[in-house]
Amino acid sequence: MPPSLPAVLPIQPFTRPVRGEVTLPGSKSLTNRALLLAALCKDRVVLTSALFSEDTHLMVEALKALGFTVNANADAGTIEVSDQANGFKKDAELFVGLAGTAARFLTALCVAAPSGIYRIDGIPQMRKRPMKGLIDALRSLGADVRCTGVEGFFPLEIHAKGLRGGEVAIDASESSQMLSGLLMVAPLADAPISIKLSAKVREPFVQMTKNMVNQFGGAADFNAVSGSWEVAKKSYTFAGTYAIEPDATAASYFTTLPLVTGGALMLLNLQQGLQGDTQFVEVMQRVGLTATSSPSGLEVSFAPGSIRTGISENFNEFSDTFLTLAAVSPLLSGPTRITGIAHSRKQETDRVAGMVRELRKLGQEVDEHADGDGLTITPRPLTAGVEIETYGDHRFAMSFGILGCHDLHGDGRPWLSIKDPACCAKTFPNFFDVLNSLRPFLIVAIDGGAASGKSSTSRALSERFNFLHVDTGSYYRAITAELLRRGLRTDQIDAVKAALPSITLGTQVDGRAARMEIGGRVVPESEIRGPEVTAAVSHFAAIPEVRSALLTYQRNQADVARAHGFGGMVMEGRDIGSIIFPDAGLRLFLHADPVARAKRRELEGRADAVAERDRLDATRKTAPLVLASGAIDIDSTYLNLEQVVDKISGLITEKLG
Ligand code: CDP
After folding, report:
1. How far is 136 from 568, CA to CA, in rounded Å?
2. 452 forms bridges with which residues in the sheet?
3. What ranges make up the beta strands (E) of 318-385?
4. Distance CA 587, CA 582 (A)
5. Among the listed residues 162, 172, 211, 159, the one whose alpha carbon sits nearest the alpha carbon of residue 37
6. 158 CA to centre of ligand 1 in angstroms
7. Max Cα–Cα distance, the chain, nearest Å
8. Mind listing the pLDDT tens digit for each residue in 434-482?
9. Helix (H, G, I), strand (E, B), or coil: what is residue 199?
10. C-beta 455 within 6 A of ligand 1
11. Is 495 helix (H, G, I), strand (E, B) or coil?
């Protein structure tokens, strides 16, 4: 799970074309199908590259509640299902949250159990999502399914007694997951099952289910002559490792990103496989995207100047991706017409109505089709300052997260925020981290002696480039103030070491400056700039344990900067280019002759033994102040602040390309 996403997340636009690789999460649809099928096999099955998200977690927990042994290892990306013979306890309570797949698949699974009483429920929004088609079909196969709330909806109580075979009709027009659930458990019935569709079903997900049923050892196929799905009575025989493909719907966001930012992205391991949502790439090609497939994945790019026309498209077969296109439609040159999505009104939220509302807030002209089946967006100038409502629907958060990467103001200033961004945990918990990791990020390390001008220079640079400013000297000062507050002296080294573990550090971002928190409180400037701290800081800073206590903390400031959407970080100190970030994109060393520096302090009216601090800093054993090899040395003796800042700005601009 992402560490902590704020309640409202401003999206930092990309000021330069995107470049890089994306590792996509495993497919939700494949993971939850494979989990159910694995539970129906006899031998151990290990899913690899599986998705770890709310929806798959709910499925895993439900299988465990039913008595199956499921071991999920998020670090390895594997989920192992074993000891299936002990599954199907006689009594279980299952909770499916808002996960449509878990809801439909588990209902079918419980009905197919030989015996037992199972209660299934979800969150209030789930109690409104369609279940009736599946419940009716299962009942006509002899199942005892009781709706304990409203007829046709969750919560359910199932009195299992296995499934009878034979003929059955199903209306899965509101959700093809209902047919998928039935298809997956059908091989367990007492006799072959023949399934007639009493209404049209969206095909691609059913094809995916059929392929997986067959991969796991079942035999299901559509018979064009009889017009029904025929499923043989057969045991699932699969054993061993089953690899989950990357999620094609999640891929749609990164397929669209280069349209918004320019540039190119490699979507690792994404191939034309079992998922219908891979069709989205073809839609985007008509909008100007270039896509190249290779064994390593799919490379998507968008050359500047490609024609971004609006298009008319029926999204019925891959409707989860309609939001991805709709959200970026304001950037196209003509109207975008999306149809075939009436059923999406009954998904996580009414997606059509929600999309219409959010796009209108962004100043777009939107026509909600009278037949309820779609919308047409005519691009208008985008309205800045909009907070996007996400309705607990992960797809709103991610689609508009991509639009927010557009540099509306031309200077990298955020203009769009996402409410409740954490809702993307449903299928893609680290979506915003992945997005942030693609945003070009430059670390500028500035070292130098006392009063060499680092702080004013760094502050000016952070303003100019919208980078986070990290003054590590202020961190050593804050620690010093805390140690002094605890009554410790600079010669009590053992006592200092003993105190360090009890000092808890945090960071607060104040404008473009990072400030250290100790015990949850920002240490104020007034406490760290006084003569006592100034006299003691270099002594404490020479203690190796003090330095190592700050090492990881300082490196983590880059993540803080990224999480706040900064395009870079200026970190100043004594050992930044040598120890903390030896690989920084730009490493600088500022120096000025001692007379000039002493004079600067004098003008500031501050008592400071500059030369003495430099001596201590440069001669200590751990991380002494040095001109790191490869760092650029800048002599500021005869330059004013503006000249130094201009000089470094030139170097940064060069690095940023
Ligand atoms: O006052 P001035 O800006 O010159 O110094 P500072 O940046 O506030 O740093 C205060 C002291 O912290 C330095 O004299 C060093 O002893 C120590 N320090 C360090 O050892 N390593 C750093 N990366 C930053 C500061």
Report:
1. 57
2. none
3. 336-339, 365-368, 375-378
4. 8
5. 211
6. 68
7. 96
8. 998 898 889 999 999 888 889 999 999 999 988 999 999 999 999 999 9
9. coil
10. yes
11. helix
